[in-house]
């Protein structure tokens, strides 16, 4: 310990307290991030036999800032990136890092008062969702920012109004104690969702197409109906290929920031319909492949009578049951998804 690794005037023992006293703990969904000022380039203000006592006194003098991170939902916060401002003693070695502790303590107390350009250390935190969860936003002691949100009608003013930050990584100035909350929402199956492929699989099972990829030719169109000469229901197209409607629904389900204040479709309503309908399709068609169950759920979520009745008739004919009943499925999102709706609120109908 008497060696001198960096060949300066102080031994390794004397430099023992070059420590990054920054740490994170996790307890009941809360992360605690504490900043104890230190330097990795300058010498400590004390050495010798009394170093331990001096070190305790030094820590009592140094400002300590705590940032508490709460996790709402399931995910984690990490990716720490720590930056030092002029509030840090290392920013002014001659003023703050002196060999005499008494002088140092005085400088520590007056650091900001004597520096009109004083700024503070910063910590950058990154939110990572758990499996089947999606990061939504930060709130509490943060700077509002719309980030990279590209939902129709969403802008910085809305982020300001809601006091939310939608960037996965945020930088927090450690000028005072703070609390920040990382909000995650549960979206099982969203990461792997491919409703157009599910439609293709459904049409193959129902004998409409030979291959799942045939759905991409945009020839299959239902959603409307007529009454035949004998009073029977004849299902017809609504002017939009079913594959395009499935793609629209998937876009809405994957855009968690579509909200009614913006006009157009509402993600939360569509997602609640989708979850309920998928659970019902799984219950009604336990013998069917998962892709078929998802396709039936998608048709029911699109919500028009033509789609719902046609999907139910096809599924029931295949299974030779009457298990699928449109009335058992939710369709609250229907108005914005129909051909004369305006899902993206751009003034033009979906058709």
Total number of domains: 2
What portion of residues belong to β-strands? 15-25%
Strand order of the largest sheet: 1-2-3-8-6
Order of helices and strands: EEHEEHHEEHEEHEEHHHHH
Give unreliable regions as ranges: 12-52, 87-113
Rg, nearest Å: 31 Å
Explained architecture:
This protein is α+β, with helices and mostly antiparallel strands and 351 residues long. It folds into two domains: 22-186, no CATH class; 195-337, no CATH class. Helices cover 30% and strands 20% of the residues. It has ten helices and ten strands. It has helices at 51-61, 93-96, 101-110, 156-162, 195-205, 242-254, 267-284, 290-302, 305-319, 334-337, and strands at residues 22-27, 30-36, 64-72, 75-83, 122-129, 133-140, 169-173, 178-186, 223-227, 233-237. The strands form three sheets. Strands 1-2-3-8-6 form a five-stranded mixed sheet, with no helix packed on it. Strands 4-5-7 form a three-stranded antiparallel sheet, with no helix packed on it. A two-stranded antiparallel ribbon has the order 9-10. A hairpin with a 5-residue loop joins strand 9 (223-227) and strand 10.
């Amino acid at each position: 310990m008497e060696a001198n690794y960096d060949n300066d005037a102080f031994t390794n023992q004397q430099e023992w307290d070059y420590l990054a006293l920054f740490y994170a703990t996790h307890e009941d969904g809360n992360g605690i991030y504490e900043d104890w000022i230190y330097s990795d380039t300058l010498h400590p203000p004390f050495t010798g036999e009394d170093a331990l006592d001096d070190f305790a006194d030094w820590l009592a003098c140094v400002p300590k800032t705590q940032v508490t991170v709460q996790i709402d939902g399931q995910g984690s916060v990490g990716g720490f990136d720590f930056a030092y401002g002029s509030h840090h003693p290392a920013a002014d070695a001659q003023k703050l890092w002196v060999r005499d502790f008494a002088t140092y303590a005085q400088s520590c107390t007056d650091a900001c008062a004597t520096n009109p350009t004083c700024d503070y250390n910063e910590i950058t935190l990154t939110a990572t969702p758990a499996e089947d969860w999606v990061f939504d936003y930060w709130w509490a002691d943060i700077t509002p920012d719309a980030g990279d949100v590209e939902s129709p009608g969403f802008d910085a003013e809305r982020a300001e109004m809601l006091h939310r930050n939608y960037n996965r990584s945020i930088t927090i100035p450690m000028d005072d104690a703070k609390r920040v909350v990382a909000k995650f929402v549960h979206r099982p199956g969203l990461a792997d969702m491919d409703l157009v492929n599910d439609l293709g699989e459904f049409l193959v099972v129902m004998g409409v197409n030979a291959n799942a990829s045939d759905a991409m030719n945009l020839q299959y169109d239902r959603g409307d109906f007529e009454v035949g000469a004998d009073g029977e229901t004849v299902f017809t197209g609504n002017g939009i290929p079913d594959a395009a409607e499935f793609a629209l629904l998937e876009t809405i389900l994957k855009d968690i920031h579509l909200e009614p204040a913006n006009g157009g479709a509402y993600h939360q309503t569509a997602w609640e319909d989708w979850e309920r309908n998928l659970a019902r399709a799984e219950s009604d068609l336990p013998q069917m492949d998962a892709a078929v169950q998802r396709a039936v759920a998608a048709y029911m979520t699109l919500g028009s009578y033509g789609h719902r009745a046609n999907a139910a008739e096809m599924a029931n004919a295949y299974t030779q049951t009457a298990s699928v009943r449109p009335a058992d499925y939710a369709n609250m999102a229907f108005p914005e998804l129909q051909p004369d709706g305006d899902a993206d609120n751009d003034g033009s109908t979906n058709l």
